Every structure is written in structure tokens, then in C-alpha cells.
């Protein structure tokens, strides 16, 4: 039977998936099994690796094929190999599993565990877009290290460290808060964005500093690193239309058309690629900032905190 016939038969047997995303996307266990089949070339060895029986693994693969409407694995006495569609799905599955690992590392760090041995405080942009990946890498090095994460603006991070409620912090502001030592770990750019229907999204000339300062903007709250950088760049003249305490809330307000916003480029990849937001060119304004690791003066990070600091620089 040809590949096209196999896929056609599988598609004919399966009704079109309906409902929400959970009904259309296989569960993580099934995706991990498919990745194991691709790596090992054997359904039996893949089943053993993920800890299920071979019949259960076969059933899970067939269920996934019905759910997706395509054949994923060709089975023969010589082993199991991916179909062309299976190879493509495997590439997508690998990204989903990697993203789930990042999600799990971030979520686990948010839990306030009594046995925590590394307490991290991070400003919102770093906590949302950089720290989970660092925690995945730290887990590979120190699988027994429990991490707790406290997220807030840069001022909150400084307060946590000075109160001995965190071992290592990450901030985005222009300067290092008093009482803390620091190391620059990366640089970031802020971008002015607007909804596609906003006049700024269609203009041909850049927005200059005077116009940006005179325009009410959707902004992060006072004390956030993003707000500090913008206010300094505009000589203290940033005008808030709405003040919000999270990057996600600022993006949602801008997408709804409330007004232009200023956010880290780290936070805008999906919205810009989908054109839910449009980058607005700006001239005469420096919106570059340093991202810093911080710790109490005279208390250089040691142990897991030192390892995490090292990972941020790789």
C-alpha cells in the first residue's frame, strides 16, 4: 500500500477533530513516545524507554494517527520507521516537548517549596521570557536543586534581595539598586508597537522623541525596568494612558487598540509575526538596556546561585 493510500485510509477512518486545542493535539506522553520511536527505530524499545508495554505503545500510536488523520509509523519485522508525515509531525512534536520542559521548569520554580535551596527573584520580562530556559539548563546540571521563583518589577526584586528573601535576582532597569552588586548578562531593546489599525502603524516617517513624549502610551507601572528606561530616554516626560503591572496585560491592551505601547523585543515575537501588533520606527531615542543579575553587596553568589549565574552568560 502506498504512502498516499495509507494516509487516505487513516484520514477516512477518523472523523475531523472538533472542539478545543486539547482535542486536536496529542498529549505529551504520546508525543514523547513518537520521539522515542524516531530515535530508536523500534516501537518495542521505545515502549520500554517510556515505561509502557508494547501493546499499549502500539495502541497509543494508532490513537494518535486517528486523532491527526495521518499515518505516522510504518511497522515491519525489521522495526518501525516514520512515514514522511510522521517525520514532519516528529519535528513539531520535538518543539512541543521542549516547550513543555521550559513550562514545567518555570511552573515548578513558582511553587513555594519548603525544601527550596535557591530562591530567585526576577523582573517580569526576564521571568517570562528568559528564566524558564535557564532553569531547564540548571535542572540538567543540578537535578536535586529545588528552585523557587518570585516575579515582580525591578524595585520588588531589590526589596526581596535586601530583605534576604532571595539569593539571586534579575533586573532590567538603567541602574543597580543601592545595596546590590551586579553583572550584565545580556542586552535588550524596547520597541514601540501599535495595533494595525492605529495611525502610527501606517506612517512612513519615524516617531521622534517629542512626539513619543507627547503621546499617551500603554505602559508598565512605576518601578518596572521598562518604564525606567523609557522615562529616562524621554527626559522624564513619558505620559501613561494606562498603567499595567504585567507585560502580558500591556500587550493585550495594545492589541485591543487602546493605544501605542513600549515593550521589550523579547516579548513581542509572536505578536509581530502574526501582525497583531506593528513595530513603529523611532528616531532620536535610545531604548537599549542592560539585563543584570543582582545580589546583596559583598555576598557573591555561591552554589546553585553561582551555577545559574554562569548559565545566563552562555
UniProtKB/TrEMBL annotation:
One of its GO terms (molecular function) is DNA-binding transcription factor activity. Residues 26-83 form the HTH lysR-type domain. Keywords: DNA-binding, Transcription, Transcription regulation. The keyword DNA-binding applies. InterPro entries: LysR_HTH_N, LysR_subst-bd, WH-like_DNA-bd_sf, WH_DNA-bd_sf. The keyword Transcription regulation applies. Residues 1-21 are annotated as: Disordered. Belongs to the LysR transcriptional regulatory family. This is Transcriptional regulator.
